[in-house]
Amino acid sequence: MNRFLAVFFPPKCPYCSKAIRYDQTECIVCRAGFPKMPRIALLPTGEICIAPFTYNTTVRKAMLEYKFRGRKFNSESFASALAYAINTVYTKDMTFEVITCVPMSSERKKVRGFNQSELIAKNAARILGKPFEQLLYRDKGAAVQHELSYHERINNKDNTFHAIHPEKIKGRKILLIDDIMTSGMTLSACCGVLKENGADRILCSAVAMHKGNDSGRCFRFR
Ligand SMILES: [Zn+2]
């Protein structure tokens, strides 16, 4: 946060709401409590997804305040935790050259004012030193995956996601970022479009992953 603004609007820790210094993204106590090992899941389409957090009460509160109460500052901490998780499990097989995010329909973006995954992805791109590019778009009025039942989700193959410029996907190694992974269906749908358009390799990452999974189709390595 800007030092001048911090005098008038002291930043707060996204997880415990204690006041923090302008150059911190969360308090020292919460940072020390971050899981040392990220969670890894296999998506229905075969890609790997890495997340620093389990979607527990604390992370949920920070995420809801971020998405619905204008606490955009929380994205700095989410991105920092996500970048740490990526670097922890990073191997030669996971190299990527561009970072993108799960898109939001233009309609929905207008209502919320911003795409929560995009802001996290842009902050993560800055930390990881890779470019952010919006590679996909989402149809207007497309059903939101988490509002559907599992049965509806697997049958929701109505081509919700599309490539903006297919030539920007072809042959590239891509890191795809979302805010929360529930069943992995949304990330899988995006992976499908990226693969159809010739992506060389896709690695997925979310800030948090649900503890179990409601589909039974993805599983935890740890
Ligand atoms: Zn804290």
Describe this structure as you would to a colleague:
- The protein starts with a helix and ends in a 13-residue tail after the last strand.
- It has a domain of 138 residues: Rossmann fold (3-Layer(aba) Sandwich), CATH 3.40.50.
- The chain is 34% helix and 17% strand.
- Strands 1, 2, 3, 4, 7 and 8 form a 6-stranded mixed beta sheet that branches.
- Helix 4 packs across helix 6.
- The chain has 222 residues and is an alpha/beta fold.
- Strand 7, helix 8 and strand 8 form a beta-alpha-beta unit.
- The structure holds zinc ion (ZN).
- Zinc ion binds next to helix 2.
Structure keywords:
two-stranded antiparallel ribbon; 222 residues; Rossmann fold
Secondary-structure element string: HHEEEHHEHHEHEEHE
Helicity, in percent?
25-40%
CATH class of the domain at 37-55 and 91-209: Alpha Beta
Number of strands: 8
Structural class: alpha/beta
CATH topology call of the domain at 37-55 and 91-209: Rossmann fold
User: What is the alpha-carbon Rg in Å?
Assistant: 17 Å
Distance between the termini: 35 Å
